[in-house]
Prior knowledge:
By secondary structure, the chain is α+β, with helices and mostly antiparallel strands.
Amino acid sequence: GDGGEPLPGKVLAGIGVIVLVGAWLYASVFQVETNEKAIVLTLGEYSPPPRGSGLNMAWWPIQTHETLQVTDERNISVGVNAVSANRRGGVPRDEGLMLTGDENVVDVNFQIVWNISDPSAYLFNLALPEQTIEAVSEASIREVIGKSEIQPVLNRDGVITEQVRNLIQNTLDGYQSGV
């Protein structure tokens, strides 16, 4: 009773509160590495700005977070016998065969190197980001090759590379892709 010793029920309740607070903190605190950015969603809506590296807090269960690697370079390969890693059961295709403006057929193999510049745009503006980047890249190279003569293509002219890069980036910027 009143002898100064805490009641077992009060001790258990105190331990229970401490466990609940610890579990809530465990669910709410998250680590963002230096090569990552995180976005916080409050009731499913984006809460700007993106969170940088270090310990961050998302008030669970009201808030959740998504973490993306933004400095790592990602690759997409297109060309004859190129099997993209993002295709399930990838089968070699002749996707590198293209028609030039002077009606010659060339076999173009190329690789697109990209990374994420805006995590929220990347997550929310494209349903299938990697497939979109691949499709835009292939369409862009076909457009530039289709307008070019065969000689600059065979010489691996840097102008063609720059035109393709600009066309891909402008298209992805138009989609507000965050890439």
